[in-house]
Every structure is written in C-alpha cells, then in structure tokens.
Amino acid sequence: MKPYRLNLMVCAGTGCVANQSYVIKEALEKEILKRGLTAEVQVVATGCNGFCAAGPLLVVQPDGIFYCLLTVKDIPHLVEEHFLKGRPVAKLMFTPPAEKAPIPKMSDINFFNRQLLIALRNRGLIDPTKIDEAIGRGAYTALAKVLTTMTPDQVVAEIKASGLRGRGGGGFPTGVKWETCKKAPGEVHYVICNADEGDPGAFMDRSIIESDPHAVLEGMLIGAYAINSDQGYIYIRQEYPLACERLIIAIRQARDYGLLGKNILGADFSFDVKIARGAGAFVCGEETALIASIEGRAGEPRQRPPYPAQKGVDGKPTVINNVETWANVPLIIEKGADWYASIGTEGSKGTKIFALTGKVNNTGLVEVPMGITLRDIIFDIGGGIRNGRQFKAVQTGGPSGGLLPTELLDLQVDYEQLTEAGSMMGSGGMVVMDEDNCMVDMAKYFLTFTQDESCGKCTPCREGTMRMLQILERIAKGLGREEDIQLLEDLSHFVIDCSLCALGGSAPNPVLTSLRYFRDEYVTHIRDKKCPAHVCRDLNVYTIDPELCLVKGHGCGVCRRQCPDNAVIGEKNQVHKIDQELCKKCGVCLDVCRFDAVKVA
Amino acid sequence: MPKLKIEDLQRIRDEVKRTTLLREGAHRARVNVHMGTCGISAGARKIVDALLKVLEEKNISDVNVTTSGCAGLCSREPMATVEIAGQPPVKYVDLTEDKIRRIFTEHVLGGKILTEFALALGSERTHL
Residue A148: its chain B contacts at CB < 8 A? Predict the structure, then answer.
C-alpha cells in the first residue's frame, strides 16, 4: 500500500456532522479527484476533535494544519492552494477571539495543546469504522498482554494500583469494584458499559464511542477477563444514532477478527457483548435503574446494598462502569499502573474529559489531567468568556452538580475538591455563566430538569424536588417570602438524605451551592423584588428614556409597533412611553430599540 | 474471515502504521517539492510521484513528502528542499525523476549531500 503524502482528517463527530462535515468530505473528494491527487491525498472521516464551536473541522496531517468553520465554497480554493501547491490558506485557519493573526498548527492552539489525551487518545487520528486503523494505533495490544502474561488477579491488582475511579459520576475506585465482583459467589458474572449519558450538554461518552469504539470494547474485554465473565452489555441511549452505528460496526468487525466470541486471540477466553438501547430516561444512568431496564423492567432504582458487584443483572455479580472508565483501562494495562498514577492528584488519578459549554469562547470537549484549575480550563483552554463579559459562575457535574463562583476559579479540579466545594465531578459537564445569568434562574433551570426526570419511585425525590421548584418559581416571580431561603435549605437536606438514589441525592446541589455562594441574589429577589441580572422578567420594569428616544431615535415607533400588548404609547416622531399597567414584561421593546432608549431596572 | 492470533495483531499494526504514521506528524526527514505554477509546469508533479513511489518501494513511513509554493527561482524548477532533523536544509534544482531518486537514496537515506545537484546549503527554512 502506497503511503499518502497528505491525510485530510475530516471531523465526523455529531457536532461537525450537524454542521455538514460529510458534505465537506464529499466536496473534498470530488475536488481531489478533479485535480488528480487521489493517489497522494487521503480523506479520512474521524471522530470528534472536541472543538465543536469551530466546526466543521479539518486537520491536515502530517503538518497538523488546522482549518475550521469550513464551507463547501472554500473547498476548491483550499485544494488548489494547499494540497496541490502547498500553500496553507490562512483565512480558513483558527483565529482566537481578540487576536488578529490566525494560528496554522493544531498543536499551537491553546484549546488543544493544554490537553492530555488518554481516553480520547485516538480522536481525530483514526477512522472509527475501520478496525485496522485502531489496531494500527495500538488497540487490542493490552488485551494481548493480559491474555498472555497476566492472571485475572494481576489485572485487578493493576487497575487498583492505578487509582482509576469511576468516570460516570460516583468516583468509586474501579479496581475495588472489580475485586468485589470477582469475589462474589456464582458461576456467571456480567460486565456492563454504561453509555446512558444523560446530563444536558454533556457528550464525553458519545464522543469516545464515535471516535474510538474499540477502546471501549477492549476495556470491557480486559474487565471481563479479570472478573471471569463471558457476557457483557452496552447500555446506550437511542438518541445517539451515530454512536450506536459506529458501535455496531466496531462489534461486527471485532467479531470477524475473533476479538469477540469464543477463544479470543486463540486463548482460553470467550466474551461477547450485546447492545441494550435506552429510551432516554435520565434515571437509567443510575446503575440499579439501568440494570432493571436491561432486564426488561421499568427503569427505576432500587436500594443498595446489595451493590451490582454483588447482585446485578438477573441477580448475578455485575461490574458496571462508564464509557470513559472503560476507555482508560487498555492504556493503564499497556503503560502500567505507575504511569497512570503519576498523573493527577493525591486522590484522583489520570485525566478527566469535560464538556465545556455555556458562555465560553471555545465550547467543546477537553481531556485534561486531574488537578488542573477551573481557571485553566475556562480561560486558557476555553478562551475566556464570550463578548468580553465577566465570568460569574461555573456549574460542574451536570444538572445535579453545583454552581461555583469566581473565588473558586483556582480550585484544583478533582473528586475531593469539587465535593468539598458543594459540587461534584459528575460525568464532566461544565456550564460557564457570565454576569447576564441569574443564579436563582439557573438553580431553577437545573432543578426543572432533575424534577422532570425524577422517576417518582421514592417520595423525597418526587415530592421534595417539586416543592423546591415551586418555591424557586415563586421567588423568580417576585412572590418569595423571607422564610423561603431557610425552607429551601431544609428541603434540600431532606431530599439529599432521604432519597433512594443519587438522582435525588444530588438534585438539590445547584440550589444549595447558589444559596451558599450567591445568597445576596436570593435576598434581592425576595426583599427588593429585583433580579440583578434582569433575567427573571416578572421582576423587571421597562421604561423609555425620553431624551434618547427623541434626540437619537426621533420617536421611531418600532417599540410601539412590536409591543404585543399595546403598552407603548406615543405619536410618530414624539417621545414614547410605556404604560406599566398594560406591560406584560416580555422585553420585546428592549430587544428592538436600536437607540438604547429602552431601560430595564 | 480468519480469526486473529496474537502475532496477527502485530502484522496488522505494522501494515497500517506504514500508511498512517504521517497522520501523527512523526518524521525524521522531509522532502519539500516546490509546486508553484512554475514548478507544476516544469514537471514537479512527476517529482512528487517519483518520491511517493520510492517511499512505497523501500517501505519507508517516516519521511514526509510535502509540497510548497514557488521558491522564487522559477528558471531552475523543478526544485525540492531536503530537510533532515538537526541539519541545514538543502535545495536541489533542475530535478528529474532519476535525480530525485538518487537524492532520496543518497541524501535522505544515506545522509550524503549531492553537491552536483544542489543549489545552496542552509537556505531559508519552511516554517509552518
């Protein structure tokens, strides 16, 4: 096979695909054919590169030239200039906000060079639908190693020594879980990969499966060997069609190669996996609810203990780990526990993937070593806050995490520090907020989600979260009472202490942390009936500055015409005024006025 | 499809590595063929083809063949610059397929500069 002079790595993660990356790929192939470069230049569709904000992305290897925000129109020029004549096209490169010069190389862009890729080691480098490319990058080497040189006990010991902890949210030591399951009596043991990623805005697991499904399969194979299991399940949500498709292809190819099935790699070890599709219930990410769903029962959690490692699927001992956890396993085996344990902090080893979203410039997916500060993630990698606004808070750990303020920006991100601050690692969601976000509103938003997703089996979660949401809603409407803050705190602790599973056990976190770090905002809402960020519209008062309206706007009347409630009064070319009795506080006048004459207070 | 044995993994890895190594940006030498309009009309495409063919024949995956724009000396095209890590780059001029084959074997692989084809030593580097 002749090596290609250039590899065009077209990002085909869900984000870029939604931005037409397959159309870009097709256009590239057409243009390359037209220019007679087919034998020299190869186009490869890869998994997600993580920099979703700049998609569709194209990385040109071996030079690592990074193109972003591509359109089909750019392709003929790009192919002629760069791939034929060798002149990289500056105008298609990434230019950081507030800077003028584009950065040609991927490795020079802060978003990429501050990351450390372990779970995402193959992202952007292989075609996820070709098992050979994964093998070329070292897939199944670790499996060969355990099958030929390690006993199951040694594998468990290695994972234990690495300090790997569950990446799905709980942070339970993976090796200990495996050991418990291994020791649990019974002939049949199961392994499960939890790919029921439910946090809004989080897509770590989806991205791993989309870019490197064999990393997950290999991790599960190693786990199965360690606990003596011959059957595994991958529980993946139906809303991830691309991930499902690539997983199915990967499983088929692995079976063809005998990497799944009987006597894997000629050894006395057999294992296969089944895909179980979830219907998108958030609670099914909880391990006992997930197992219930696999068994065909309603996805509701049950009391623990017994833990799944003791009694899981069909009452048999079951190891259940999240996608990211499984993807870490092969590299730990390959490079050794000491190597892995050298990365991270005292209690949290290795790396963590975060889905960086919200009011940050570079939204996307980042894998960073444990112990990195929030500031580094948000400002260095994330490129700071959009539109030059001020940072206000970051929600870590998904909807059941906590809101952390500016004072905690230098917090080192690991399991312990986040928990101490009242938040959690969770599965790795990270929503950045600026001064235009109201913390009462954010707490309300996250609680709306968890309340909605509560399965309703236990009373504290079902009723408690609903009452809490009602209180937050009335505060946002200006009907809050002095005692509401205390009531919210009491209810929060009650829901946390008495709920059956982690959904209720963590749902009040956004309320508690916003009360802890942004208490003043609650007080202002309740006592002064004001929302400092002007988000809670019922508390806003809209007025028109007569001078600006007349001098700058000449009484243009746009607000009067747009107001759905006829609350704006005034003749053309005259000063306009808002009738507070009629105003329903929709804010349209504020949005449409081009002269900044509409004021909100 | 035959089931894999452990030694097959290594075989696949070696085969695939040959074609994908360049994706990882790893290379010990780089041959840069100048492909401005002048270069193309003087036959630079044949030079690139010849280079890629040599890579294939000799099963070499850590030498990076790239193209760049006109080097400015249009009368001496086709031109190519050989860059070996830690050494000054060498510009070769008036290339033919035979010349580039010799340059590849003797300079890129053998480390001996072919002064008779070279224009100059230590010219500007291509910074990307």
Answer: 6
Token representation of residue A140: 């199944």
Question: Between chains, do B18 and A144 touch, taking CB under 8 Å as contact?
Answer: no
Separation CA A218–CA A300 (nearest Å): 29
For residues A466 and A474, the answer to whether their CB atoms sit within 8 Å is no
Kindly tell me if the per-residue pLDDT of A455 is higher than 90. yes
Residues A429 and A401 sit within 8 Å (Cβ to Cβ):
yes
Confidence band, pLDDT 50/70/90 cuts, at residue B71: confident
A140 touches B at CB < 8 Å:
yes
Rounded distance between C-alpha atoms, residue A56 and residue A72, angstroms: 10
Mean pLDDT, rounded, for A15-23: 92
In the predicted model, is pLDDT for residue A98 greater than 80? no
Six token digits for residue B104:
């590849």
Q: Measured between CB atoms, which of B15, B37, B48 is closest to A40? A: B48
Say how many C-beta atoms besides its own lie within 10 A of residue A177's C-beta: 26
What was the ipTM of the complex prediction? 0.80
Q: Do residue B16 and residue A133 have CB atoms under 8 angstroms apart?
A: yes
Beta partners for residue A235, in sequence order: A194, A276
- Sequence-distant (≥ 6) Cβ neighbours of residue B30 within 8 angstroms: B63, B64, B65, B66, B82, B83
- pTM for the whole structure: 0.89
In DSSP terms, A305 is beta-bridged to none
> Is A263 part of the contact surface with chain B (CB cutoff 8 Å)?
yes
Q: What is the mean pLDDT of residues A121-128?
A: 90
CA separation for the pair A522, A515 (Å, rounded): 7
A105: how many CB neighbours lie within 10 A of its CB? 19
- Give the per-residue pLDDT at A108: 86
Contacts A136 to B, Cβ<8 Å: 12-13, 15-17, 20
Residues A174, B22: Cα–Cα separation, whole Å:
36
